[in-house]
Amino acid sequence: MLYRESGQYKTSYIADQAIFPIREDRIGMAVIGVVALAIPFFASDFFLNAIMTPFLILALAAIGLNILTGYAGQLSLGSGAFMGVGAYSCYKLTTYFPDVNIVILVLISGLFSAGIGVIFGLPSLRIKGLYLAVTTLAAQFFLEWCFIRIPWLYNYNASGAIEVPVRRGFGDIILTGPSASAMTQYFVVLGIVVVVTLVVKNIVRGRIGRQWMMIRDMDIAAELMGVRPLTAKLSAFAVSSYLCGVAGAMFIFFYLGAAEPSAFSITLSFQILFMVILGGLGSLVGSFFGAAFIWGLPIVLRAGFPALGLNVGAEVIFHVAQMVVGALIILFLITEPHGLARLWQIGKEKLRVWPFPYA
Amino acid sequence: MDILYSVLIDPFVQMADMPDFLLQVLWEGFVAGVLYALIALGFVLIYKASGVFNFAQGIMVVFAALTLVGLHEKGVPAYLALILTIGVMGILALTVERFVMRPLVNQPDIILLMSTIGLTYFLVGFGEFVFGGEPKQMITSQLGLPTGSSAIEIGDGGLLILQHIDIAAAVIAIIMVAVLAVFFNKTRIGRALRAVADDHQAALSVGISLNQIWAIVWFAAGIVALTTGIMWGARSDVSFALEIIAFKALPVLILGGFTSIPGAIVGGLIIGIGEKIGEIYWGPLVGGGIESWLAYMIALIFLLFRPQGLFGERIIERV
C-alpha cells in the first residue's frame, strides 16, 4: 500500500539503473535527508556531539570495512589502525599546510591510509580466510606501535597525544578545535559522509564492485573468468583503507578533538567489525544500521539503568553493559546471521505484497 | 654502514659476549613460548572438533584464573577452589555449547568467529562484575606450587636464574600435552573427538553425538585455560590486562596451523623465543616495545611461504 512499485514503468536505461529506481525509495531518502538537515536545530549539543557525529563517522568506517569484508570477502581486523593512519596523516598535513581547508586535508589523508592499506593487503594474495584475519592483526599492532614510538607523528608533544588545532574554513567558520560548534561539525561530517557514500555506492554497483563480489564468491572461478586477483584485492584494500582513513581523520578532528594512540586500538577494530556483521555483510545501508546499533546500545544501556530507578555504581553499569552487549551480539548472530540489512529487506518485501502474505 | 653493523653484527657480538645472559633470554623465551603454546592448544582443540575459531580462549584463561583467585578470596580453601573452578569451566562449556554453538551450527566461519568475540565481551563483563576489576595475586603457594628461584653458575662467573614456578610451568605443560595425547589416542571419547575432527558427517553416521563432543572439547579447552591461567597468573597479576596474551597466541596459531597440536607447541616455542631475542637484541635499535608486533611479523613471513601454517593441512581448492 505504502510501498508498492507497480505502475512505475522504466522507459529508459538511465531510469532503470538509477540508484533508487523505486519512487517510494526516493521519497524515503528525501525524508531522511530533511530529517538529517533538521536535527541540529532541534537536538541538544550533547545529542549531536556524542551520538550523531560519531555515528556518522563510524558508519563511514563500517562502510570501509564492509567494502573489504562484505564485498571483497577479505576478513580484516586492522580497520582501527587504518583509521589511525588517516588521523595522524591529517594531523601532519594540517601542521604543514595550516591554510588549506581542513575538509580537503581530511579527504587527502585517506590517500595515505590507502597506501598503507595496499602494503598490508599484499599478503592477501597468498593467505586466505581466518589466516588472513590474523595477519591483519600484524598491521593493527605494528601501526599502533608506530603511533606510540615515532614522535614525529605527534609533533614531539610531551603527552604523546595529538591535539586538534583550531582551523577555519568556508568563510571563517571555526571547523575544528575546542571552540567549534557541534552544529558546524555535524554538518561537515554529514556532508563528507553523504558524498563519499554516494561515490562508494556507485563503485560497488559498477565494474570494480562486481569484480570484488566475484572474488568474494569464489576467487579461483573469478580468476578463470578474467578478473585479476591482484588488482581486485588490492583495489578493495585501497578503497577500504581510504574510507577508514577519512573516517579516522574525522573521528579525531570533528569528534574526539584530541587522541592518544589507544584511541585506535584493537577494540575499535572489533567495534567496526561488529557494526559490519550486525549491520549485514555486503550492504551499505546495513553499515549505517550496524553503526547506530553498536554505538547507540551502550549509551542506551547506560542511560537505562538510572531510568529504571536502579541506583548502582558507574563501574557496575559499565560491566553489565558490556555483558549485555556481548550477549546481544550472540543472540543477534543466532537469530539473524545476515544482519539488520536482511531484516530491512524482509520488511520491504512484506510491505510490497501487503496485505497478502505471499506474492 | 653503521646501521648495517648495528643490525647485522652487533646483536651477535652482544650474544657472544654474555653467553649467560643469552641463556637467560632463551629460558625466558622458552617459558613464555610454553605458555603461548598452551593457549594455542586450547584454540586448536576447539577448532579441530568444531571448526570454530575460538577467540575467547585468551579470555577463558583470565576468567579461569580470576574465578580461582576470587573464590579463594571469598574464603574457599585453595584446593576446593580449584575443584570448584573446574566445575565452573564445565558449566561454561555446557552453556556455550547449548546456547552459542548449537544454534549457530553450519554458519560461515566469520559468524562463528564473531560469536566468540561476543562471548569475550560477555566473559570480561561477567568476570569483572562478579570478582571486581582490580588486579589480584595468584594463590601460588596455597596450591602447593613452588616459589623462589635458584641460580646456576655457568662458565666463568655467569649466572642463570631459574624461577621455580617457570620450571613447574614447563613440567606441567609437558605432562598436560602427554595426557592429552594419551586421551586422544587411547580413550573412547578421545577417538570420537578425532573422528569428529576428521569428518563431521562420517562421525555422525557412526553414532557419535556432535553436541556431546563439543561440550567435552570446550571443557577440555577450559581445563587447558585454567592451567595456563594459574601459570601465567603466578608470573604476574591476575586481571583482564592478561587478555593481551590472547593476542600473542594468534600468531602462534597461524604459524603452527589451526589444526595441529604439534604445530601449536612448535609455533609457541618459535614465537616465544623469537620475540624475546628480537626484543632484547634488536628492539633498542627502533626504540623498544617491538614485542607487541614482532610475533605477527615472524608468523607473517612464515605464512608467505606456507599459507596454511607449518603443520596445517594443505588447503586444496577446487572450482
Question: Can you offer a commentary on this structure?
Answer:
The complex is a heterodimer of chains A (359) and B (319). Chain A is mainly alpha-helical and 359 residues long. Chain A has a domain at 23-262. Chain A has helices at 13-16, 23-42, 45-71, 79-96, 102-121, 129-149, 182-204, 207-217, 219-224, 229-256, 266-279, 284-307, 314-335, 340-353; strands spanning 162-163, 167-169, 173-176, 258-259. In chain A, the strands form 2 sheets. In chain A, strands 1-4 form a two-stranded antiparallel sheet. A two-stranded antiparallel sheet of chain A has the order 2-3. The longest helix of chain A is centred in the last third of the chain and has 28 residues, at 229-256. The two termini of chain A are 13 Å apart. In chain A, 46% of the residues are buried. Chain B is globular, with a radius of gyration of 21 Å. In chain B, α10 (244-256) packs parallel to α12 (291-305) and α11 (261-282) crosses α12 (291-305).
Instruction: Give the CATH level 1 class of chain B.
Output: Mainly Alpha
| Helix percentage range of chain B | over 70%
Task: Assign the structural class of chain A, choosing from mainly alpha, mainly beta, alpha/beta, alpha+beta, or little secondary structure.
Answer: mainly alpha
> What is the approximate shape of chain A?
globular
Strand order of the largest sheet of chain A: 1-4
By DSSP (H or I, 4+ residues per run), the number of helices of chain A equals 14
In terms of per-residue confidence, which ranges of chain B show pLDDT below 50 for 5 or more consecutive residues? none
Query: Span between N and C termini of chain A?
Result: 13 Å
Order of helices and strands of chain B: HHHHHEEHHHHHHH
Helix-strand sequence of chain A? HHHHHHEEEHHHHEHHHH
